[in-house]
Design brief:
- The strands form three sheets. Strands 1-4 form a two-stranded antiparallel ribbon. A two-stranded antiparallel sheet has the order 2-3.
- It is mainly beta.
- It contains one helix and six strands.
- The chain is globular.
Length: about 80
């Protein structure tokens, strides 16, 4: 079963559709790849404020940070 069939999506790509950032650099091959993914259900995408890749100079791996919207709307 695919991600699309389960209504799942790459959260980073959904929030950053036109950016080209990567989470891994292979010094042996001199290539960049995106090997870390944050997968979420499409219905929960509004719950995320910001999704970004945190670059690092100490490692060949970068992390992904997700800011979750904790404000709840009060219905009256």
């Amino acid at each position: 079963m695919t991600l699309e069939q389960q209504d799942l999506t790459d959260t980073y790509r959904t929030h950053n559709p036109s950016t080209r950032e990567y989470t891994f650099f292979s010094s042996a091959h001199r290539t960049y790849s995106k090997i870390n993914h944050m997968i979420s259900h499409k219905a929960s995408l509004n719950g995320f404020k910001k999704v970004e890749i945190i670059p690092t100079i100490l490692s060949n791996h970068s992390g992904i940070v997700i800011l979750i919207n904790t404000r709840r709307s009060l219905k009256t």
